[in-house]
Amino acid sequence: MTVTNKLGVHALVFVGSTSDAEVDHAIEHTKAAGFDLLEFSLHDAHTLDVPRTKAALDAAGLDVVTSRGLAFDADISSEDPATVARGEELLRSSLEVTAGLGGRLMTGALYSAFGNFGHALTTRGRQNVVAVLKNLATEAADKGVSLGLEVCNRYETNVVNTAAQALALADDIGEDNVVIHLDSYHMNIEEDDYTRPVHLVGDRLGYVHIGENHRGYLGSGHLDFTSLLHALADIDYQGALTFESFSSAVVSETLSNDLSIWRNLWDDGPALARHAHAWLDTALQGVRPRA
Ligand code: MN
Questions:
Q1: Mind telling me the catalytic residues?
Q2: Which of 33, 80, 158, 220 fits a disulfide with 273 by CB distance 3.0 to 4.6 angstroms?
Q3: Which residues surround ligand 1, an ion (CB under 5 A)?
Q4: What is the pLDDT of residue 122?
């Protein structure tokens, strides 16, 4: 079987922010490790020179995906109209950046703040999520961009913790360019196994994050990637697989706090990236769809 999925890597493997020097460093080492795609978190996109970065990505022949979560004072799952409006503005400006970079997918916790909420999602809060993302999806479609709903664990959001919940939210948004984004790290916490959610999402799966249970070196934790990769083959998933790993060695002041990155799991991002590409490439060679 020939595996044709593009392999991606998260920029936070290399750099904590998106200054010109950091962008250049990330692109150089993404290419050097053999990846096809670079994912930028837009948590501090004000440092990102969009036209310059697009030119550098194009010159390197790399695809780009953007991701972000919202903030507690700018959260479309809130009941407070001013908080919702600030969240919508963050999403709209991130969509501009995504289109400016030539990205075709903006994903992440687009539906809420990152963090521990201390209460369940309310009915009105969910209605606000649906209304804002419906408008945003229409604008995104005009720019050729899809929106990903990343399924995150209960400690990071109260909106979407399982694939089934993400499908229900996408159904309520009701726009074709809203896709589901699964992440092995979050699935390990919330799903029954790695097979059922992948089969459930099927052709609505638009993106996959590959991360260990502790978000360190692939193969150094206990996740059953064999089952996950086989399930992806079952549904003939053709999208990207993007390696995600975080260490306090690459510190982004805001995001490291939001993601609870307190431990140093590695020091050398380029070495980690080379290992992850080789590991994924090797694992995919043995993957076959269900007979
Ligand atoms: Mn992820």
A1: 150, 244
A2: 33
A3: 183, 209, 244
A4: 98
